[in-house]
Queue: 2 jobs
Job 1
Amino acid sequence: MSSLGFGLIGTGFMGKAHAIALRSVGTVFGERDAPRLRYLVDANLDNAKRSAEAWGFASAGDDWAALCAHPEVDVVNICTPNHLHREMAMAAILAGKHVHCEKPLALTASDAVALRDAASRAEVRTSMGFNYMCNPLITVARELIRNGELGEIFNFRGWYQEDYMADPATPFSWRCLRSQGGAGALADLGTHLINMAEYLLGPISALFGQLSTVHTHRKDPVSGNSREVENEDIAQILCKFSSGCPGTMEFSRIATGTKCDLGFEIFGSKGSIFFAQERMNELRLYESQGPARLRGFRTILAGPQHPPYAAFCPAPGHGLGINDLKVIEVWNLINSIASGEPVFSDIRNGCRVQQLSAAVELSNRTRDWINVEQRALDQNAELV
Amino acid sequence: MSSLGFGLIGTGFMGKAHAIALRSVGTVFGERDAPRLRYLVDANLDNAKRSAEAWGFASAGDDWAALCAHPEVDVVNICTPNHLHREMAMAAILAGKHVHCEKPLALTASDAVALRDAASRAEVRTSMGFNYMCNPLITVARELIRNGELGEIFNFRGWYQEDYMADPATPFSWRCLRSQGGAGALADLGTHLINMAEYLLGPISALFGQLSTVHTHRKDPVSGNSREVENEDIAQILCKFSSGCPGTMEFSRIATGTKCDLGFEIFGSKGSIFFAQERMNELRLYESQGPARLRGFRTILAGPQHPPYAAFCPAPGHGLGINDLKVIEVWNLINSIASGEPVFSDIRNGCRVQQLSAAVELSNRTRDWINVEQRALDQNAELV
Amino acid sequence: MSSLGFGLIGTGFMGKAHAIALRSVGTVFGERDAPRLRYLVDANLDNAKRSAEAWGFASAGDDWAALCAHPEVDVVNICTPNHLHREMAMAAILAGKHVHCEKPLALTASDAVALRDAASRAEVRTSMGFNYMCNPLITVARELIRNGELGEIFNFRGWYQEDYMADPATPFSWRCLRSQGGAGALADLGTHLINMAEYLLGPISALFGQLSTVHTHRKDPVSGNSREVENEDIAQILCKFSSGCPGTMEFSRIATGTKCDLGFEIFGSKGSIFFAQERMNELRLYESQGPARLRGFRTILAGPQHPPYAAFCPAPGHGLGINDLKVIEVWNLINSIASGEPVFSDIRNGCRVQQLSAAVELSNRTRDWINVEQRALDQNAELV
Amino acid sequence: MSSLGFGLIGTGFMGKAHAIALRSVGTVFGERDAPRLRYLVDANLDNAKRSAEAWGFASAGDDWAALCAHPEVDVVNICTPNHLHREMAMAAILAGKHVHCEKPLALTASDAVALRDAASRAEVRTSMGFNYMCNPLITVARELIRNGELGEIFNFRGWYQEDYMADPATPFSWRCLRSQGGAGALADLGTHLINMAEYLLGPISALFGQLSTVHTHRKDPVSGNSREVENEDIAQILCKFSSGCPGTMEFSRIATGTKCDLGFEIFGSKGSIFFAQERMNELRLYESQGPARLRGFRTILAGPQHPPYAAFCPAPGHGLGINDLKVIEVWNLINSIASGEPVFSDIRNGCRVQQLSAAVELSNRTRDWINVEQRALDQNAELV
């Protein structure tokens, strides 16, 4: 069997993360999955060439369309700035390639819907870069819920907070532009958690949102003038899941002191769980059973009993890192291509997250609850 | 100088907590403050007599009106079931007594307003039983905010979760009745945090609420029939403070595994703080200064440098307990009577919390934001 | 029945803690136990009078011998500087009084043995001020071990660290004198943990110790001269319990940043526990059972299911404080007097701790292991 | 420039970890360092071939001597069972190859000394697999100490606990044999911490040790008979550093519930630090400065301000994993070869750790303190 050929677009933060993952996945999971690193493209040809050599790609270039068309490229990895995702993903899909796209899928819900439908017609396998979901402990969390080990689910509290824009002196950048940074914290951070919430608890049926821009102006580093920030620092959401379970979600890019504080608490009739990404190797679990005097939240440390941890290390408690999650993400896509079964966070999920994100903005504008059942979303003229 | 005479109504959980505090406050803080335990009343005369002997009260009875009228009673402590607070507080105020009332002040906003106005006319000193606020570390938190040590405040996240109603098998009780248990989790738990939020950040100007009853029916322990629960298990709130700062608050009485999980995160331009009552001797602080490689959230352990901790123990890190907070609450009232200066959580705050709570319910009904500036509250026919 | 009359010697830190406890114990535990605060003595008569009034003692004086002889005093509480404990305890015992003595019982092992033997002959009930042991969660820990719930015990790691002498600039004081401060960190801190270790695991049979004085000289605050410190900052101990279980213990008064870091880890064949006093309302438990993927250390929060927590508060997770432990200590002695059954930390334990402490010093001198079985201790001329 | 050729011996747990690291190091750190994966050897030829294909090695075989002699192999990575390290390392050194050897260097101190001296004569660069040391936060810890930011160091407390042999039912294996498993927990776990202690605080000058075998017999899985375990479950050490600082170290392979609990506390006159591997992305720091009311242990989260974290991820708090430490270890060796400067944990450190380990065993036998200054070690007939 010949392994899959990968073409990677972009050599920045995420491009490098994909490259590390593509280099490691075969070693970590065994020979069947070793990908061929076929083609690397960057807008800057020198960058592309230098990185291709360091990262072990067979060829390099600066024309992403050529990459999408290349016969030995089976999978296209899209790691470019957000506003470029749409057209690259569409080109790859139309060329019949499988697609591994960093989030967001697109900057508008309607663009996302077009991609979703194109991918469906092309029958290609896709994956979105929601890497936090690939944590073995998130799989445990999902199983606990799906197996009924937590009983009926009462409540969901989720958040994702960082502080990369907390300092008022941080200058104006593309992140502050609606056309490039999308809906700010909601786009950067919120999409990760919204997707994870639906992965864990099933679809959200209605939501209500409040968006806030605390730093309304920032200094343009070129002109030195104050410029108006076009998107929001904080998003706060009330929601209901289709199951009837209520929830809250909160996202901030100005949460001073937090670095990667994505987390959730989920309360059920038989137990509860707590997760926070800054301690990504820990899942806290409470079970409403056993002697009352000995109950409490326990801290489960990731180990080989939590697949696929053992592929990385046979010893428990030694710790996975953020880059390992990307290796799992790549591996999931490889398996999806082999089996024909979609991964959870494929382009449909990427599209839905985009629609939910648009619904939050709509709610903020109208100050009203929004029905976000899939049928309603697809019929809401403001969200497609 | 003759010390103050106290009359205590109620010998249950909170009555006992007040008695412990009244017994200890003189010893903890020194001779000036030693109260006279003058009169103890309980609906059950035997209970009253037995407890009076054990707790050191000079006399006992079953007539709370007589207690309120007694010439040697200077302060009336109201520790009865919630629905009795209103008339007892009113009687005490009209008799010119100072009042120390457990929350809630009343079951409706209009009753609370009547008490507030009566207390104002009578010029008595009052205190509400918001004991968590009396924590020396909450004082530190407030100072950090008021002094500007955290800079401009960006965001508030607060919560109060317990699990005393989490088990669906917990039978129907007075807590499930609107007439006695008020607005459920919002009343039991939320009022503590709403009051604390305003103590820390100043007034809330607008809010939006979602209330949910997960366990809609419970079994009546007498009849064995299923009865409809009249109030809510979960309250979720979006808000804006007058300062412009956005916030969220969430309350649940069915948060399996949590026992006294009242807490908050407050993010500012110069730093952030985190507090959670289950670790009431710890305050977490992040400061955006010093070498970047050494920054992080620190855990401040309560000690004698945090007044009035030293009155309890001269050694740091030894730990205060929940009953110590009630001692501080009593001491604050004694000082307020001596100085004529109101405490933060007096009857005005108790009334405002009642109005804010009503506003949350109104928002939940109307699915709309509610203006809760004090003037607006007092003019909103649905909230007075 | 007439309640017990208490006579308290000393109005400092521990005197006040005893007074708070004596004032509260009846209220907390119910009428049967309400003590009479009969007599308060301090070397300074004004202090004694002022405190007696504030704390509710019937009479005051400056003659501790008179207190010991007073016919209405049933129990003598000794809260004076360490070097005075011996003669006061002996006088009280010889007067047939029950004794509640702060640790250390005496400054030498031979003095402690004399007191132990005198108390035994006098058939009085005694209690030593090892308050940390009175924590309801320590009772849980002991039960887990005694009931076999942790299986065979493999290993003990204990420590007690504070930083009250960490700063080299802290001046010379009585704490630095062998005649008053005893063996430094070993005496101040170590005795608490040594006693707790034997409470939990049974007797230690052999030990080996290393003592270190890091700050060998400190500045005399009066003369301004450098004086040699006569006792040690750090004690480090290897030991074996009679059960065969090995252990380590470590004590430091210069552990910068720690405030009340008394704690232990105990590992068994079926489970393990972890405790640390700075989070005194938490006990961590690991059980080697249940599904492997869900195992982990859980945090048990103190609650009413852990007697006698419920006497203080009926709600779980609300938190006891350090002063509450002293209330339990007083209550234990009251019950001991009523029942004739000794408490765990009575004068025999206080004596044994003194002997073990002497054995550590002997080991440090001889650089050899010391047999500390009780028979060997009593026959070791250097330890009696 | 031609990159280095690597030959890897062993395809088990550590062999795979080296392979992952060799595959990633060029991508993570940039083109200059991309190694050539030249040769993979395993005792089982099929394993070798299959793994070579999956991991990207140019050739495979079952003859490690041929690998050591291969002209295109510049560095030999030794990842075989412990008792094979010695002869492989010696062959590689004598062939003039650089050596990257998993610990232990050898099973006896004298073998280790022979290797140390051979490497010195051959002037090859070496690295031992003490991967925990490669954590960017350990570099921060060392700098804090070396720069004097913690002031004078008072005390060291270190430990390394796991529970892989805690269950008495775990069968007899090579780990229980002195000839293969060495000194048990001391060899498996202790060597990591001993090396780290000297990395942080400089050389240990004297030590005293207690070794304990709790599970003295285990069932042979083949014969079904009970066999005597030849090495120890627990090692407990008192020590002094050359600086005069006292320390303790404790190692256990039967610490039920712990998974990778390597950690330390270091107390100094200006501050203290705490580290525990199970939360490897956190370093706790206390500084004795700033306002007293705001002091506390802070948690520093690993981020790009802690080199070389940024090579893995530009965003803070996202988390490194155990395999990333091996990448850093490989990178350190590559840089060492380029610069000619030794890494800290080279073969000299590996030898010293072996000698210190032997000294602990000697102390346990003689029940005496052992002088472990390097000169004394090299002259102690029992340790060379």
Job 2
Amino acid sequence: MPKRFSASEYSEGILAGNRVVLSRAITLVESTLSTDQELAQQVLDAVLPHAGRSVRVGITGVPGVGKSTFIEALGLHLVQEQGKRLAVLAVDPTSQRSGGSILGDKTRMNQLAAHPQAYIRPSPAGRSLGGVTRSTREALVLCEAAGHNVIFIETVGVGQSETAVHGMVDFFLLLMLAGAGDELQGIKKGIMEMADAVTITKADGPNEVPARRARREYQNALHLFPLAPSQWSPVVTTSSALTGAGVPEVWQVVEQYVQHTQQSGYFQRRRQEQHLHWLHETIREALETRFYARPEVQARLAEVQQRVQEGRQSAFSAAEELLRL
Amino acid sequence: MPKRFSASEYSEGILAGNRVVLSRAITLVESTLSTDQELAQQVLDAVLPHAGRSVRVGITGVPGVGKSTFIEALGLHLVQEQGKRLAVLAVDPTSQRSGGSILGDKTRMNQLAAHPQAYIRPSPAGRSLGGVTRSTREALVLCEAAGHNVIFIETVGVGQSETAVHGMVDFFLLLMLAGAGDELQGIKKGIMEMADAVTITKADGPNEVPARRARREYQNALHLFPLAPSQWSPVVTTSSALTGAGVPEVWQVVEQYVQHTQQSGYFQRRRQEQHLHWLHETIREALETRFYARPEVQARLAEVQQRVQEGRQSAFSAAEELLRL
């Protein structure tokens, strides 16, 4: 067990871009110990003025879509060709650091993980969705303070994490496969409407023609749908992590989006809304956690839920009953 | 001011199908007085065993789509041809009983309002979204107990009410116009993905051909999207409230959906989930309302929000600060 740093040792190390200190600070924000949490908040408040100067991109897609290889290809383009400093975080509340369904080990992004301008961090293990999203949100701030100017936040597209991730990024990218009738079933309904861009992956070899057809179909379909408040019309592209074709173009779309929304003022407005959202979400979570942890509530909850579920008591009178305790 | 009924006078009147008592009971659940709320809960718990025997349909569409005329046409079909007893409720938190944007007066559904098997109730005025959805949820229970076996819940499709309504109905119907490029902008993103069916309205005269084309386009687009947990593939139809063409077919789709989901067990499972959802939502709302109403929180909130919004304090340490008060 390494010795504990002080708050200023953490914050100075982070601001100096020290990756070891950054990693240990992220471990600190992931800790559920209240002493760690207190220290983490001091570190976060100290580095906060140096955060915020990045483009935050949520990337999602079901297993099999080629997410790791795509992120490696796009990431290498950013660090090698664009001079960016990239951090890749993951939100995967189901991961128990065993299945490795998502960034489970860095070996799936060999080259990117080895690059000095890239920092890859898997999802914290064995925590609730609320816990994972909170510590990811905090890790994002730490990575920005450490000088990373592009942040990827990766999710698997099958759960509830996407809404949370959508609430902490500037841009939401969905990876899809051509001819994905069946694969599509794996994606949770509602995710497609969050996408600012869709890229049809593995568009190489015999897959290239179906990929281009899928691109057209999705582009047409998305045009039928209402615009987001950003007034940005979602873009659909094809890409191949194997040949590299279409990979830089995805980043061009992100940059166009950033330019579009910075000019309209939406970019900054949305970030401010996100900050407020996280304030109120954190309060909500704390209030609920305290309430449901109370012994008298725990003693009655199962029975009350049963009655409500079976329609023997109205949700509202049941809520009253628990709140009166 | 009519005299107050007792809880049993309310519940007996409702169960006997007395519309005057039903109306006064809904006024009671809409009241924010705590004595009224207590009485309302007694009434609700008393009639609850007699509720739940209806098909609950959410209907949404932006102003101009012809929602009132469509609801009147479909409603008259149900009460006249199908022998149904229909209740139409509205969720419109913006309505101040003046603009009449939604069911503001019943005169827009003349014939339906006059029919003895139909009961129409506008949105409660001047309340928050939480308040409106809660009282609508309770009014739904009262209408079912009064013997209505089809419930329509109408929203305007531009706000946040749709998610709440989606959480209290079995089936979600979206009304759209052909060639609605511009009208579409009025619909909030995310609503289309909630639809179990879409009907292209005003499909008559010169509008019939574009309506049929729009039907095909939407049907194709929706097929590209993931299935909901119901495993139901959304259906797109055309209809005309003017000629009546396609109106009975919308109801056939609803009945097919009910049959499909009752056979799979999804119908009942979803209702149980909805009950639990409302329990936890009610608790959450009560906890938040109590927290934000505390004078020491109110005194600090604006300043803390400002700091968080401007990125001068992290959402999490700000939340801690407020929670410690």
